[in-house]
Amino acid sequence: VGKGRTESFSDGVLAVAITLLSFDLHASPGRVHLWSQVVHQWPSFAAYAVSFYVIGVIWVTHHGLFALITRVDRVLLFENLLLLMFVVAIPFTTATLAEYIQSASAADARTAVLLYGLSDIGMAFSFTAMFARVVRHGLLAMPVDPVTARRAVRRFGLGTVGYPAAMAAGLIWPPLILAGITVLTAYYMLEETHIDPAAGPPGAGGSGSAGAFRADDG
Amino acid sequence: VGKGRTESFSDGVLAVAITLLSFDLHASPGRVHLWSQVVHQWPSFAAYAVSFYVIGVIWVTHHGLFALITRVDRVLLFENLLLLMFVVAIPFTTATLAEYIQSASAADARTAVLLYGLSDIGMAFSFTAMFARVVRHGLLAMPVDPVTARRAVRRFGLGTVGYPAAMAAGLIWPPLILAGITVLTAYYMLEETHIDPAAGPPGAGGSGSAGAFRADDG
Amino acid sequence: VGKGRTESFSDGVLAVAITLLSFDLHASPGRVHLWSQVVHQWPSFAAYAVSFYVIGVIWVTHHGLFALITRVDRVLLFENLLLLMFVVAIPFTTATLAEYIQSASAADARTAVLLYGLSDIGMAFSFTAMFARVVRHGLLAMPVDPVTARRAVRRFGLGTVGYPAAMAAGLIWPPLILAGITVLTAYYMLEETHIDPAAGPPGAGGSGSAGAFRADDG
Amino acid sequence: VGKGRTESFSDGVLAVAITLLSFDLHASPGRVHLWSQVVHQWPSFAAYAVSFYVIGVIWVTHHGLFALITRVDRVLLFENLLLLMFVVAIPFTTATLAEYIQSASAADARTAVLLYGLSDIGMAFSFTAMFARVVRHGLLAMPVDPVTARRAVRRFGLGTVGYPAAMAAGLIWPPLILAGITVLTAYYMLEETHIDPAAGPPGAGGSGSAGAFRADDG
């Protein structure tokens, strides 16, 4: 399958997964007032917001990676499905984390942190495997310049360290996993803006491997 | 990430979110006749129809905004995710509004109005932030002509005033929020038709910043 | 918004709606053997298959209509949202029909037939309104040739008569609505194949208004 | 409808179906610890992973088939809808298999194996019918070369034999259906990598019928 279709299929899966996050939000009439339900569900709202940006960053990173390459081989395709398999599990691990983060049972809260952490770590490692495949098997559009290479290594390397660290923090005190991943995600979003806009191609037709992780590729 | 992909990802999210609105419609066999179930569920059907057009208008506005620009920077991307985060919450706030709009508890009904209003207001303010970013940071394809600029300001300004006004009305009498948003949405849909069709490019290849909010850009 | 985006947004909504049809299929462990559950759920499977092809035909018809036009005006957009609103309700009306088609209460079965019929009729009339708009407001790519015009009128005219007829039959004996719509859908699918393949453009680049309802437009 | 739209509609349906697989994963607070819930749900996780790659392979095969052809006729469209109808049922048959694979009732476990097997077999036979249609009715872009033809026959032929064999094994001992389909899916994924990369077009613009089942078509 071609690169374009792998991207559009992945985009479709990411769009559905990000939307399904909202399935964990709900209210049902009963003895409890709606307002207390909402207040008691704060972990659901917090986890919803965090995972929304986590999947948003995955989508940005995915396109950054695919902008570097010209073709997709089957191993990359296999790894891409692995990545998506972890991403599609995020609505489940998010809902589970929200449900158990305040659990009276510390063991349950930790299991929920573990599940959420594993879906993120599986995602980060799939990305790193994809990046390694791309670099080592000549799938690149052109030799990456040192700046882009350093940024990509920093980006993927950070993920393989940052997500486990956030999970480890969460095993100590559960809410720390949300805090840690918020910091990580905010870094990813903001890091991308520190780019000299003058260097970008001005028109929609601009492209190129160097622009892969830039903000302004058309 | 490029403009085209941001649009297609956003389109995917909007398409899933608009379809998930139907999840609040359901009937289950029991002692109550189907006909009475349907009649008693009128708020679900009304809220479904209103939110369907609300998301429809969001989609139209989103494309109008993106037609004005040539590139996407990371802050805009961040704001776009914020916008989508509010939109994806609409199926939840719609279902909650439908469930509680006739609640015996006035407090519950008002909380539901507040939630529904906040998802709309969050959306309107995200749009305004995106428009401000586009104008102030040189993301425009070309300097917008005064007519387009005035229309865009009117469009985004109306949202930041209209949605809170509809919510305020709903806090007085809950059904007024649906009525208010229906009026607002109808205005958005109809306003767009008052365009001189002769001014539009005749072929599919036509484009341009001036046509961004026109009905006939190819 | 442009024609291409209206098509891709509509495609997204149709793809999600057709997939959500499967949500009515489920089995749960209990006293009843899985095999009997499946046998007793035959209306769910039958309704699933029928609605799957109904939405499939809607998708084919939608593209046939859009292949005729060069631009979309806001009234057409409004009508398109109306069409999608009825389509997105089909998973709900399908599930309700499957649930109540064998109901001991004849009134409940008829209500379910009515709901299912109304979602189809609303869809057929929205399509007819769209076709009328396209023809009367100069949105056509070029004057349609008489053959295409006659086929389009037959297609849309048949829907506005056929769906109400199937519903009427179902009000007499509920399963007749599924039988009627199966016949109608099969006709739509097969009618499209009676086309001279020699007349089609051989390459992927071929297009044209006359080919709008042909099988082989690229 | 054109080939491109049939592909993008099918992609949309496949993306939603693959994402809905995660709906069978869930945990709910109660007397049972989260960790035991996860352990006892191992069939859900196993079935999720297997079906994820099954739908992934369907997507790869679908594009391989469509890369061979230039146009779509209505019979092919009908068959494509049949294929999608079986694919969309996979989340249901996967959830049912996971639920009943460890059932105390051997009859229930076998019924679940049968349902899961039938959704796969129906998919494999729809693909074979599509391939036959494409070859016999001149929908090919150009006469396929012998290598591509042999690979396509092997691919589709394997499916019509392999899925029923996996189901037969599962009727003897239920978990064997998951093992059998894992082997089959792994073969499909790996088989595709044994291709001489030198033969592929280097740029994104490359295409051609011979490249349909290759890894590197742009």
Summarize the structure.
Chain A is an all-alpha fold and 218 residues long. Chain A has helices at residues 3-20, 34-40, 42-67, 74-100, 106-136, 146-172, 175-191. Chain A contains seven helices and no strands.
Structural overview:
The structure is a homotetramer of 218-residue chains. By secondary structure, chain A is mostly helical. Helices cover 70% and strands 0% of the residues of chain A. The first copy, chain A, has 7 helices and no strands. The first copy, chain A, has helices spanning 3-20, 34-40, 42-67, 74-100, 106-136, 146-172, 175-191. In chain A, helix 1 packs parallel to helix 4. The longest helix of chain A has 31 residues, at 106-136. Mean pLDDT of chain A is 84; it is low at 193-218. The interface between A and B is large, with 43 and 40 residues.
User: What coarse outline of chain A follows from CA principal-axis ratios?
Assistant: elongated
Helix content of chain A: over 70%
Low-confidence region ranges of chain A: 193-218
Largest interface between protein chains, with number of residues from each side: B-C, 44 and 40 residues
Per DSSP, the total helix count of chain A is 7
Derived structural class of chain A:
mainly alpha
Mean pLDDT of chain A, rounded to whole units? Answer: 84
| Radius of gyration from the alpha-carbon trace of chain A, in angstroms | 19 Å
Quaternary state reads homotetramer
- The total strand number of chain A stands at 0
**What is the terminal-to-terminal distance of chain A?**
24 Å
What is the string of helix and strand elements of chain A?
HHHHHHH
Assess the beta-strand content of chain A as a share of residues.
under 5%
Major sheet of chain A: none
